[in-house]
Predict the structure.
Amino acid sequence: MPCIRTHRGGLRAVLAVLCAALPLLCLAQEPVKLGVIGPFTGPSSDFGKPLLQGIELAVEEINAVGGYLGRPLELVVRDDQGTPDVGVKAARDVLAEKVVGTIGFCNTGVAQKALEVFQEAKSPLIIPCATGTPLTAKYAPAESYIFRTSARDSIQAPFVVNDLVKRGWTKVAIFADTTGYGEAGLKDVEAALASHQLRAVNVTRFPLGVTDLREQLKVARDAGANVVFSYTVGPENAAIANGRRDLGWKVPQVGAWPLSFPFFIEGAREAADGALMAQTFIAEPSNERRAAFLSAYARKWGGRMVVPMAAAQGYDAVYLFTYALLGIRDGKLGGPAMKTALENIPRVYYGVVATYERPFSSKDKDALTANMLVMGKVQGGAITFAYPEDARRNLIVQRKK
């Protein structure tokens, strides 16, 4: 399978053809600015920081082989602090810098409030982390400037629910926070249960910042729940796990990708072990492509990749923007031209999360499909594959279905 060197080799080949046809465009020119927005400080920084690291790694690799026709990529980075109003200001700030596009947002609620800024400016946004289903459904696909390289909750929730049904865990208690993320996730879980003619035996809503959910867990236990499905992004996931431990209630905890975050794994410690969650990328060298990415990340940043999905999805988003750029041969990088280029990327990008063959179109702005998901499990403070068959399937990087 192609690895990171292949990305570089592929870009070199494309650049060589373009430079032969358009030599004046290949002289050193002004940088191409790419916006980046995420929670790089604050309570969501545990996945905002690895997102930025993945993006910076990709930019370094792309600039090493010539950027866009000799023009280096330059990041315009803004911190949204995981706060909606700050996110709107960050969106306006990056657009004022004349970026050709933006990679942004880890929090669904922050993204929801900022989408209008990009849509009205006709400037493409690729969402690399936030998974709320409504984000890429707000605007009609043909007119939408909102793209995504993370797995929306409407595919994560059914994926997890299908696994619960196979295991016989059909008495589900849902614990969802009151943010936009929790609200959208709750609806997706309830819809997934309904597809199996099931209903949650208990639904609990809670605000961010809650540290003790034992009383609510008692209600769920007394309702006969045999599994807890949590939908929140921060320490509240750990509060659920620790509450179950304190009550001696030995039922599994499952959910979407935030159960792979440090706030959960480190906050719950032994109580987190065995938790199951949907994943698009697990930091194991399951094939040459992913091994090369992990090696390059370790050389640049050292230490453990804290939230691998965020880093990998951000990394792939940069390459998709670059492949779209390379489809524009006249150097006119306005928003409508970039939108069209993203919808018609001509070359296959052999990415880390997926093999991207026409990841976007005028009818579909989500790059990931359900076949790209695997079930992850917390084991000894890290995330591994829940099933051997997922590990085997992960040897082949999936294409969109």
